[in-house]
Amino acid sequence: MFFHVFEAKTAEKKFLIFLFFVCNADMSVVYYVQSNKLEAERSNIMNAQQNQVPQNTEKLKEIQKWTRRYAENRTLPFLVGMLTFLFLFLGTGGLFYVAGNAYRAGNMLLFWVCIFAVVLVSTAIILAARFIERLLYRKEGQVTLAIPKKTKRQQTAGRVAGLLFGVCVMISIILVVLCNIPIKYMQPVSAICFIPLIIAIGIWQPPSVNPAGFLVWLWPTLYVIHAILIVAGVPILFRKPWIFLNMLIPIAGYGILCGLIGHIYSRYALKKLKGLTHPEGDAANGD
Amino acid sequence: MEIDKIIHEPARLRVMMILAGLEQADFKFLVTTLRLTRGNLNRHMEKLESAGYLKVKRSIKGKVRNTSYQLTQEGSKALAQYWENLDAVRRSGQP
Q1: What domains does chain B contain, in order, with CATH numbers?
Q2: Is residue A188 pLDDT above 90, yes or no?
Q3: Neighbouring-strand partners of residue A143
Q4: What is the pLDDT of residues B21-44, one digit of tens each?
């Protein structure tokens, strides 16, 4: 049949064509045998990989720890929140000052313009903050931290801290309103409220359990240290017209500082995590 | 002592370890952290999901589809058991 297709006329041609088909068939057999052999080898490699006990188990066990540390320190939303607060304070503060002066001078048109501008600026800042928040971690993806179940001791500590916080707020209000505390002591008085907070954090998240948790401590601790320095008479107080900085720096300044430290630590944790999750390069890519 | 073959695969073990440290993580985070191809990771996630080790949450954020994964209780137990068995194997010096 094949000879008819090629219209072979001579015996030599017929023989050559016959030889061609024989060789081709032989090559097919060789290819079939080799591919089977390759498949078997690949299967053996995969089985060996599956049955292999990983040598770097300690490193693999660290993945969980560094994932948690990374997730705990994703402080960019907190930083955006702090900057929003700062911009709102600065943006609306000036406008309110102008509005107050206009009201006292009887210039109602300027007063209403300023009030309208306050609403406009506040809305713009809040919308911008939401937009920025949506863009954050877009490339890295989203993670949510698991909140461990609280023990009875921790639950009790939380309730006591909440109660103490309420008492401290009341004390600070009484001190400011009734005892006529000078404005320079406003920050130290407000710092009283942070003490139960620090105690509660200490019970909920002790540094021995989670060393990265120190960042949660940092902000209230800096706030309290600032208050102690003021009471001790260290000249760190701002005078008029910068008196508002006496509250703004401990709240927003230390907040932004802690947020930045947290962000830098999260970068470090992510780098560590990526190093642990693909130490063998493409080896982990195969199934 | 049986080592869980589903968890024992290197990429799946890393996925399980990442999810063990979190409440949930989305596909984007896993794909960038593990440096796997999307298709490859998808296959691993399907295997883990069919084994009952993962819970999948699909949602739409804005105009983008988002898939989040969470370790199930069964998955956490299986992972703990896996490490226990593996440590035992290592101690006994078996291959």
Answers
A1: 5-92 (1.10.10.10)
A2: no
A3: B25
A4: 898 999 999 999 999 999 999 999
